[in-house]
Protein: allantoinase
Amino acid sequence: MSGLLVIVGDNVLLPDDKVPRPATVVVDLTSGKITTISPSRASRSSFPENVQWIDAGSKYVLPGLVDSHVHLNEPGRTDWEGFWTGTRAAASGGVTTVVDMPLNSIPPTVTASNLQIKRDAAYNQCFTDVAFWGGVIPNHQNHLKPLVDAGVKGFKCFLIESGVEEFPCVVEEDLKAAMDVLQDLPTTLLFHAELEHPSHEASPAVSTHPTLYSTFLASRPQTLEVDAISLVTRLQKSYPRLRCHIVHLSAASALPLVREAKASGVNLTVETCFHYLCLAADSIPDGQPQFKCCPPVREEGNRQLLWDALLDGTIDCVVSDHSPCVAELKKLDKGDIMEAWGGISTLGLGLSLLWTEGRKRGVGIGKIIDWTSKKSAQHASLDHVKGALKVGYDADIIIWDADAQFTVTKESLNFKNKLSPYEGQTLFGTVEKTLLRGHVVYDKENGFTAGTPIGKLL
Ligand SMILES: [Zn+2]
Structure:
């Protein structure tokens, strides 16, 4: 589609602004790029008749979210999630780019040819743009450079069993072999940072019944995360050029270690997830495996410390780690948390969750977009085109009704397996429209726009 799109509004969030302001954003629909931004509301008559015009009124105009931690699981486990359903859920919640994790699909993204299989599976199925992380597994360092050349944004590895046999975890020797190669490439190494140590003593559990949330929480103590992050920061002393990134930090007791590393100039970034900021173990009911993920959602006090760390910059970004599975593997019938697949489904809810929680704490939309769009775009090396309303950037834009409320129901979820720990919660903030490169892909009134989805593989 050619021509111009003009968006005017009273509350447009421009780069580095803490609060939205009146502005006009002009988009060239051929390139999908923002061509002009002016710091006031233009009048309709100052543009030709034939431009497309969106007047957002007092609704917020925001950059789309970049969710850099999503498991889309296709091909191979497409009954868990898929490109079509996953990216629809993302778009409905204002996410315009997702970065897919290398595991849970079969094959996993550990070779360039596997990446091509994933790209082929994703083709013409995506309502958002999609980028890919590669994976580091034992003895496959020869595949790392070809994967970088083929476009992966970085690599994820596990320091503890991943839960799927085709994606084995790595030990220190494997890491050194991989980091020897990666340190000279324009890339990043992401760690699932839980490390089991023979000397770990299980916390004295009051009960070991497998349906109790406390049983599960005691089985994944904070020390697993602390020990893993210690290993990462120690290795970084030998590989100072390579950025390392901790995915889904849950344990607040690892924060001093992160602060110390960052203060000493170590090239380390950290993410946490919506669920660690919006849920607390104290109020998780027993027998409800939809609350299970690894590392676990911890106590209320821990949650407060994660918020503090986000606000002081120790934690860089917030992502979903959307990781669903089929109902059968969630063990809902028996409520067996210990046996259930670990993964929380969130795609489409993140912005509302963080906004609802942030409002209580006086956290403005500027901060929230910083953590979910700007910083996550930087993390995935997409910040030259994504993560801000800026001239020359992709016109990935959401129109956001900050005051509207909705209750999370199964019907309101757009991902495949409609199970979420947030069901029944009433949240603030709804997406009115999601635009991808200037084109409306989701509209609250009309749903998803007809025709072939226009998401690109980045
Ligand atoms: Zn994950």
Notes: The mean pLDDT is 94.
